[in-house]
Amino acid sequence: MTIGELAKMLNLSKSTVSYALNNGPKPVSPEVKQRVLKAAEEFGFRPNPVARSLANRRSRTIGFIPNALNPATMYSAYAAVFLQSTFSLAHERELHLLLPSGYDPARSDETREHLFNAPVDGFILLLPENLSALRDIIEQGRPMIAIAGKTDGLIPSINADNALGASQAFDHIWSLGHRKIAYLGSTTESDTSIRFITTETLFSRVHSDFEQSWLIRSGANYDPALVVARELLSQKTIPTAIICVNDLVASAVLRAALELRIRVPEQLSIIGFDDDSVARTMPIPLSTIRQPIPEMAVAAMDGILAQIEGNSFEDQTLATSLIVRETTSAPP
Known about the structure:
The protein is of the alpha/beta class. The chain has 3 domains: 3-55, lambda repressor-like DNA-binding domains (434 Repressor (Amino-terminal Domain), Orthogonal Bundle); 61-159 and 295-318, Rossmann fold, CATH 3.40.50; 162-291, Rossmann fold, CATH 3.40.50.2300. The chain is 45% helix and 14% strand. The chain has helices spanning 3-10, 14-22, 30-42, 49-56, 71-74, 77-92, 108-116, 135-138, 162-175, 190-206, 222-233, 247-259, 277-281, 293-308, and strands at 61-65, 96-98, 122-126, 144-147, 157-160, 181-185, 215-217, 241-244, 269-271, 288-290, 316-318, 321-323. The protein has a 6-stranded parallel β-sheet, with helices on one face. A 4-stranded parallel β-sheet has the order 7-6-8-9, with helices on both faces. The longest helix is centred in the middle third of the chain and has 17 residues, at 190-206. It starts with a helix and ends in a 9-residue tail after the last strand.
């Protein structure tokens, strides 16, 4: 049954039936709406999503694009948690998500052009770093919002308070009595760079008994961090606590400690950042800093929908929180 046939059967106009089925944009009386909905259910009428999209020029689809179109980002625990939250929100709001596929690093410009020409209402950008390359697309006025990225005001952004989180991690370790502290971090992304700079500032401010060589750019991935952790913990003098840029790096540090028979937390305390699934499933549950990823997903969805409706949306920075588990304690 088409909407025209449904309207003819009810002796109503097609537009009135459409308003009743779609809750607007113009109001209909409760009695008329009830008649339409009852008839639609009785005769199995289902609105055609393609026709609806053509009528209101909306696809009800949001594009989800990872950092620099890097597919490795999609496999990270951070992206997994964020995607899970975003999928749930999209389902609740009867939206679809479009994810990139077939990415070819040798043809990044072509991939980017293909993706940004997709029939979507707006884009959520995860960990964007080079928005200048998208300036021509941004200037077209398509709704966009960035998650955990530096945007320089080009588009709205949603961020965790990385400086606060780095301070919470350091304060926790310091309050336990640790003075020989190392940091395994990264400066490749804007959020991890903030954590590195904040931690470095805190180290110098308190004049703790740490060696400059213990402020290490290990990267944010497991394998490079494991190499660094093995080397660090094989030295004659080792730290009593290691603060890590994320939970993945913290899991590498824990593995290195177990390999070298260094007891955690009795001899070495470890704290991560993110509170993703890794933190809860490690052999010793990880103390960490929780990023409010579900709340960031809600803010991102609210922000992109506000822009689609023609409204403005301001940047948001959400607070982190300390989660104490079993990898931190007082030093020996």
